[in-house]
Amino acid sequence: MLRSWTYKLIEKKFYCAECSAISTYSIYSREPFSVHAGVPFGIPLVCRCKLCETFFVAFSQELYFGKPSFNAEYAKLLSQNRIAPNDWVYVDGKTRPGCVAGHYSTRTEEVVELDFGQGEREKFTRPLMTHFNERAPLGFKLLPAQAGVALLGDPIYHVLRQMTGFVVGRVSDHGAEKLVVQLENGKIIFMTLPDEYQLLPDRVLLEHLTECVKTYFSSIVETVKLNVVHSVVYVYGSVPELPLKEEVIREIKKLPDIRGVVDLLSVRIPGDPIPDDELWRAVLRILEDHDSPFFNCEIQVRDGILKLNAYYTSGSDFRTTIARLRHIQGLRDAQFEIEEVGAPPPHMRHVADMLRVKMKLDKKAKMDQRLRIIPMADGVLVEGSVKSMLQKSLLNIFIARAAKGVRIDTRIRIDNSLGEI
Fold first, then answer.
1. Matching CATH topology for 202-267 and 276-341?
2. Is 170 helix (H, G, I), strand (E, B) or coil?
């Protein structure tokens, strides 16, 4: 299984049950991500100990990467953090954090007014500070109250002990889920999670999951294998087409009480595999269709797996085109990196409409059956296919004459088999 997790994202300190100590873990993903830009929700990550090489699977929403996350309810400490309006701040002795309603400085101190709700406000002072806790710029999870939503790597403040620290792991001790925390003095403590955050036994989840697959996907029950480890569902085996694979994974993810799904399901097409170049051409047929919202596309098909990088205009409906791509016969998997751009101004849409009309009327340029004219924020993009270099040259001449001060970019490829498609 580890062969698929090849992209190293970051290293973190976690508690290793095998080593019975805090160890450095390397965290890997199956696709390239940046922890600075943010890892999408639900991505399975392999965390591997560098000492004993044991590993566990965690999901992106279960790890703290130093950015606002999926459980971003952090409170800053009056004694340690930079404070700004609307921050949540905890003060020792209070029952809950308060929201910063006012903040100003004198020559010798800072004054912070906190709103605790229900009309309760209170002012606090602290000396002017020059050094802050930059290891927890977002603040801290407050323990034990937030133990159930603490992420691996989260900075924490233990309210009862009045100590900071970090979450370094989660362990199962005789069926009880416990949070592992290393405090600022180096001490490691194990905190039993509240009942609502305890996991169901893997055996119970697997039985329920197996029944669901038999009920909804009876035709593939012999080729799909399931396993549950620490409430993580692993799906193995094969299905005959990509849309069916995605439907199976989507339905499994809807089940309650699971942490996430590791998709190890493959698509095995009956008969001989379809060559990548044929799949690539099938992708082009869809993307060069006038109904496709995508432009500036970069297409890669390798071993039956499609990787598409593309842009679409704000407000466009791209779901139909995505569905058509996923239903290409012979495609084993599809990965999409699509980015939204703002809608073009009205005058650029008018320029694009006029260019379409001129192209249809011009006999030499009458080849627009595979060309798309796309209005942009500062110009027009013409992309698609022509049959020959001569047609491409004639098209460039036509565009140069029709531009009239408007920026027109082209992405034209030569397709000798255009008439056959």
1. no
2. strand
CB 263 within 8 A of CB 235: yes
β-pairing, 7-16 vs 21-29, is antiparallel
Cα–Cα distance, 8 to 4 (Å, whole number): 12
User: What does the alpha-carbon distance between residue 273 and residue 346 come to, in Å, rounded to a whole number?
Assistant: 47
Closest CA to 379 of 340, 339, 341: 341
Is the pLDDT assigned to residue 27 strictly greater than 90?
yes
How far from chain centre, in Å, is Cα 106? 44
Predicted TM-score (pTM) above 0.85: no
CATH fold of 346-420: Alpha-Beta Plaits (3.30.70)
User: What fold, for 276-341?
Assistant: Histidine-containing Protein; Chain: A; (3.30.1340)
- Closest to 156 measured CA to CA, from 206, 46, 148, 284: 148
Owner of token pair 């060559």: 275
**Domain 202-267, architecture per CATH:** 2-Layer Sandwich (3.30)
- What is the residue extent of each domain of the chain? 1-74+146-192, 75-135, 202-267, 276-341, 346-420
For 240-281, the pLDDT digits (tens) are 989 999 999 999 999 999 999 999 999 887 777 889 999 999
